[in-house]
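CO-FOLDING WORKSHEET

Operator: S.A.
Ligand of interest: pyridoxal-5'-phosphate
Run index: 430
Mode: holo prediction, single chain
Checklist:
[x] sequence pasted
[x] SMILES validated
[ ] output reviewed
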Amino acid sequence: MKTDKSRELMEKAGAVTPGGVHSPVRAFKSVGGVPRFIDRGDGAWLIDVDGNRYLDFCCSWGPLILGHGDPDVVAAVKQQIDRGMTFGASTEHEYNLASFIVDHVDAVESIRFVSSGTEAVMSAIRVARGFTGRDLILKFEGCYHGHSDHLLVSAGSGLVTFGQPSSAGVPKTITSQTAVLPLDDEEALEEFFRRHGDRLAAVIIEGIPANNGLLIQRHEYIRLLRALTEKHGALLILDEVITGFRVGMGGAASYYGIHPDLVTYGKIIGGGMPVGAFGGRADIMNKLSPLGPVYQAGTLSGNPVAMVAGLATLQKLSDGRLHAQLEERNRAFVASMISRLTNKTVMIAGVASIFWVVFQRELPRAASAIDTDGISHYNRMHESILNNGVYLPPSGYEVCFLSAAHTDEMLQQAADLLVSVISEEAHVWA
Ligand SMILES: *Cc1c(COP(=O)(O)O)cnc(C)c1O
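OUTPUT RECEIVED:
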């Protein structure tokens, strides 16, 4: 496969941008090989600057549930661009997308738009602290919530740890108010609430953790978390940046049958444009400026081009038909691969239209249960799959997404390729 132009662009980019990329995983550091510079997308396909075509299972890390260049989304964007790209004043489009989400998601009575998932989470935490008058927050090892300072915290060796920054440049004074617990551990959760529950502002958890492998949680565990937060007057923030409108219209909240106090969104709700949002109980959201004392703002918040792209996307999903079709396709795709993978040292987790390949015998539910050797086997096979025209996310910790543009025929061909490369790698691994 020719990659001269991508290679050359990567070299040039490295001279003007740290590592040549504007988000680290794009540099392919974990998997090796030439990071592809993309020329265009077309349905389920990515076409790079050297003219190579790849079946895209990254889907821009989740937003593109309709695939690249969905005609309705593109038409909505083009129409809006002709009328103006930003005004710094309110538009009907913000109201349209806000009311659509409020109408479709039980837990969301009031919502505010921002420009990224990171910003959504950062703002949700601020309003949770402002509402409760408490500072402490709890997150879980293996959940990613964007890169705001107080969430860049690593898990330590104890059951619960406080305030170990996971990045240089994050002051310990900021992360000292962030506790970290392992997922999937009821005892640790109960113990934590016994000790700290009454000074906890909020717990934040990914709807279905999908940023550090796909760590599908047990329903009882999530329900216990809901019960404990309620009992102690702490808010539950469900981070649905990936799962929102990916796992059905109700996201992970409906999947588990819980009612969070606040929800964060990003990815799909922007239809491919930069958007985030946070919303939930009106009594909490009304603490925000200009009604209340919690400050929050954004020059491009509620950007009209992003709003129309998001609304066009959500409208196509609203009757549930596409979600059902995607889920069924993913189920069949994953099942067909699993049935052919005779080597049982490899597993594929699937939920809704998300799947994750993992080289170990049992699917993990906590970060510490992920076999790091297994991850390195994913990373080793990535390049050969890429060179055969299938674009998987460039890290074994990242999950894969299907879009409505992925047909059964495309999936069948991809399954054949994946099964053959995975089997070879699993053989080495076993
Ligand atoms: C992607 C993601 C974020 C961060 O969103 P950005 O738009 O990249 O800032 C936050 N939380 C979850 C669960 C995510 O998947």
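REVIEW:
DSSP finds 13 helices and 15 strands in the chain.
The longest helix spans residues 408-429.
[x] output reviewed
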